[in-house]
Amino acid sequence: MRKVESAWVFFWAVGGLAFALVACETPCSRSPLESYLHQAFDSIEFYSIHATYPFDSVRQAALAQLTDSTTQADLHSMLKNAVIGIDRHSFLLRPHEQNQLEQGHPDFVPDPYPFVGKIIENNIAYVEIRGFSGIDSVSADNYVDSLQSLLHHLHNRFPKGWIIDLRDNTGGNPYAMLAGLGPLIGEGIKAYSVDYSGKRSDYFYMKRTHVADPYEHIELADSAYSFDDQRLISVLIGPETASAGEVLVLAFKDNDEVCTIGEPTYGVTTGLTPCYLSDSACIYITSSVDYDRHGNAYGGKIQPDIFTSDPIQLFRQASIHILANSCFFGDPNVGDF
C-alpha cells in the first residue's frame, strides 16, 4: 500500500486566501532574507491552531541557518521543513507550484474526472471517488457537472442502494466534491470547522434557515437538487482517505441511512488557510478543526462503523447494510445476499 504524502494531501482553505502578515519591529535592520522568514513565521503563528507550539525556537533555528550564500530556494526548503514539523497537514508550495495548482496543471490535476460508477450485483450503484485538486473555476465546474450527471444516470437505474468508495480519496477541493455528491448528500449542514479564532464555517450542499426560506446552495453547483427517494448508503474508507476526503466521510457519517466500512482514515480532519508570501510562494497552514454534524470534534482519524481490512468482507458488509435494511426504506424488491 502506498504512503500518503502529506505535502500533496491538502484541503482547500475555508474562508478564502490570506496574505502573509508582517510584524517587523525594526525593518531597516533586517536583511531581505530575514524579513522573508519573519513574514512567513508571523503568518504561520497567527493562523495555526497549535497555540502551544514552540514557534519562536523554530523561527530562531531557521534564522540561524542564513548565510551570505542562502538562496530563495534555500528559504523555501527551510520553510517547507519547518511547516512539516508543525503537523502533517500543513505544507508549502513554491511559486511555480502554486501557479500550477491555480492553473489546473496536470501535476496537480492529473485526472479531471477522478471518479467511476456502475451498477453492480444486486442492483447496487457503486461509485469510486478519488481525490480532486482542481481549484480553477473551469476544472471545478466541469467536475461537479460530470459527477452529478453520473449520479443521475445511476439513479435512473433505480438502485437498491449506493456504495461510495472513498478509500483512495487523498483530498483536494472539498467544495467541488461536496457539490458533485450533492444529490446524495442532500439538504442541511453536514459538518463544520472551527478555526484558530473560534469562527465556524459550515459544510453543506444546500441549506435553509427556515422552511419558508429559499435554499442556499454551494456556489459550484448551478442549481441544487437531491434525490427524493431514500436509499441506504455504504461508505468505504481506509488509511488513504485523507483531508478533503475525510470531509466527505463526515458529510455522510452519523446519518441513519449510512454505514462507514473499512479501516480508520489517514487522520487530518483539519482545514488549511493558504498564505501567500512576497514571492508568490504559498504556505498552507492548519488553521481549523473539523466537527461532525452533532458537534463532535475530530482533528485525527475517523473510525469506521464496521472495521475490516479484507476487500471481500468490505463489499460483503457494504451489500449487507443495503440489502438487509432496504425494506425499511420503501424498497419491496429486496434480493438475497
What does this structure look like?
It is a single chain. With 337 residues, the chain is of the alpha/beta class. It folds into two domains: 6-102, Transcription Regulator spoIIAA (2-Layer Sandwich); 111-269 and 294-329, 2-enoyl-CoA Hydratase, Chain A, domain 1 (Alpha-Beta Complex). 30% of the residues lie in helices and 20% in strands. The chain contains nine helices and 14 strands. It has helices at residues 32-47, 55-64, 72-86, 95-103, 137-155, 174-180, 182-185, 244-252, 311-323; strands spanning 18-19, 91-93, 115-120, 124-129, 161-165, 189-195, 200-204, 206-207, 216-217, 232-237, 258-262, 270-276, 282-292, 306-307. The strands form three sheets. Strands 1, 2, 6, 7, 12 and 13 form a six-stranded mixed β-sheet that branches. Strands 3-4-5-10-11-14 form a six-stranded mixed β-sheet, with helices on both faces. Strands 8-9 form a two-stranded antiparallel sheet. Helix 8 links the parallel strand 10 (232-237) and strand 11. The radius of gyration is 22 Å and the shape is elongated. 43% of the residues are buried.
